[in-house]
TrEMBL record:
This is Glutaredoxin. The lineage of its organism: Bacteria, Bacillati, Actinomycetota, Acidimicrobiia, Acidimicrobiales. Keywords: Membrane, Transmembrane, Transmembrane helix. It comes from Acidithrix ferrooxidans. SUPFAM superfamilies: Thioredoxin-like (SSF52833). Signal peptide: none annotated. It holds the Pfam family Glutaredoxin. Coiled coil: none annotated. GO terms for molecular function: electron transfer activity. The chain crosses the membrane at residues 101-118, 124-141. GO terms for biological process: cell redox homeostasis. Gene3D superfamilies: Glutaredoxin.
Amino acid sequence: MNDANIEVYWRPGCPDCMYLRRGLSKLGIETLERNIWADPSAREYVRKVASGNETVPTVAIGDTNLINPTVEDVIEVIRQLIPGLLIKGSDSTPDNDGRRAISQWIVIAILVALSFYVEKLGFTSYGWGVDVVSVLFWISFRTFRSRKRIKNHASS
């Protein structure tokens, strides 16, 4: 078990879990990871703290539970509860915003190119479907970035 008693409850296939676990690992924060699909006691714990739901990731730091937190949320609680755990210079989250934005635009560009290609083949209705998916991706990317900006602004 880790010295700081930080437990991350997760399940396979969960993108939020993957992002959180990777972010904490990159910062050198040691955690005890518990897969709720493989561990019935972990599943029961998450249900207890998440109003009967199996919401992951869930992070337990001592007596504090965070339901579906970001890396930033976990770091903030660590700063409050275990101030000596974070090494100076490592208490910020990994700078993935630039890479993430580029990846998002690449996905949209690929979808737009696919739309043109499908329409050129004569499958206009499928092209429209790909266009709808492109717009949904763009909206979700914009929503994620604006929420992050609002959160960062509120915490400064």
